[in-house]
Amino acid sequence: MYQKLSDAYRNVRNYSNYRSNSKIQILLISATALVLFLTGYIIAYAIHSKSNNKNFNHLSNDLSLDREFRNLLLSSINKEDIKSHLKYLTSFAHLAGTDGGKKSAEYVHQVWKEQGLEDVQMIDYDVYLDIPDEKNLNKLDIVDQNGTKKTFEIKETIYDQDLNFINISKPFLAYSQNGSIMSNKLYYLNYCDYQDFELALSKNISLNDSVVICRYGWSFRANKALNAQKFGAKGLILFDDPLRSSPKQAQDEIYPNGQFMPENGTQRGTLYMHDGDPLTPNYPSNSITYRLSEEKTILPKIVCQVIGFGLAKELFNLMDDQIPVPEFWKGEMNVSYSLGGIQNKVFLIRSLLRISL
Length: 357
Prior knowledge:
Blueprint: H1 2-61, H2 63-75, H3 79-89, H4 99-114, E1 129-132, E2 139-144, E3 149-153, E4 173-174, E5 179-183, E6 186-188, H5 194-202, E7 211-215, H6 221-230, E8 235-239, H7 242-245, E9 269-270, E10 303-306, H8 309-318, E11 340-341, E12 345-351, E13 353-356
Parallel strand pairs: 4-9, 6-7, 7-8, 8-10
Antiparallel strand pairs: 1-13, 2-3, 2-12, 5-12, 6-11
């Protein structure tokens, strides 16, 4: 009986060893095949790349061919035409969805047809857009505890009254939440990047129901809005610090004398993270496309407004300056850069926007 059990055990062990050896052999064969495949792929890729490089080098080293292409390109460009087109297209406001936008599209359509392009078409799309209500300017009210109110209408200076800028939109951020908000907390959060908010939290500052102000730079404005929303703010003010838009060394080049921004100049733009229509992501906005409700989009759910750095200076002067900020948070406004807080003031933003299809 013992011998039978011993023989049975030996047979089981031999079978197990056989299975283990078989597994090892299969793994070795698979590994060898994979190595051979990768080696062959690398050799073929190297040969193909070398061949392509030879062809490219042949073209790039052929100076006569290079000159021919260059001369053909230069001879087909008329700088006076470019100047004329740009002068016309920038002579009137052409916000998307407005008569000016259609006018500019019709102009490009006609020019391309005259230049001989085939099958030039104008196709209508029903796009979800923001159109500012020009009769009701976006405003910022500052009210002290005595009820004294100071109102700032957010608008830009027209330096040349002869220019046809009567239809230019007032400063706004597309896809901001509509409405009015009020808070007695205003904080400066640098670029409104994630780490900027974390620094504020590390100082035991509650951002819930606050208004945050931050400067352009480092990240897209939509990221700034979504970060402010994530950390509990109900309003966002954006401005361009003169460090970036109007540096001290360029004071003789401030618009209208040069390219740099005046103190009430603003940077408009979208708060949508992607391209196209936020209600039809990745699809054309035609009559048969399914549309999301606004609640299901990734548009910001807080009120956002852009201002010039002239108004930003006034806000900084009203904020509490007891909480210093890192040196790299400071710009070139002649103010005390601090995290801010409460100083017996109530800040009210009215973002009066009309959203239309």
